[in-house]
Amino acid sequence: MKAAVRHVDGQWYDAEAGPLVRPYAMTGGRTKPGPHGVRFDLIALVVVDPDASGDADEALLGPEHRALLGLCRSETQSVAELAADADLPVGVVRVLLGDLLEAGHVKVSRPVPPAQLPDGRILREVIEGLRAL
Fold this sequence. Notes:
41% helix; 3-stranded antiparallel beta sheet
């Protein structure tokens, strides 16, 4: 008996096996983002670059690349949020974001390391000072 194949939200699914396009096919077999080996933390923030070239360049991108760009257009999102919203494995999203970063379509801001965050004691003193006003 043949399994039912259906089209949902731009992706083809096999009822028993899941998506018909495997993650390695989306990334061309790559597991690391770009030749520069950029590493995307799960909490790194991704935003569409306002200086990026127009729709002509985006037409050359794959559907997964365009889906990630669409998600980033509405608001700045973390790598983890993009993976969840695009329903793709984080590793695949990292590779695709590396492509978009190299092409100049997105900008990525790194999270602030905990050592550079202000001391909690100072923040409490600021809050207390504001309440005293």
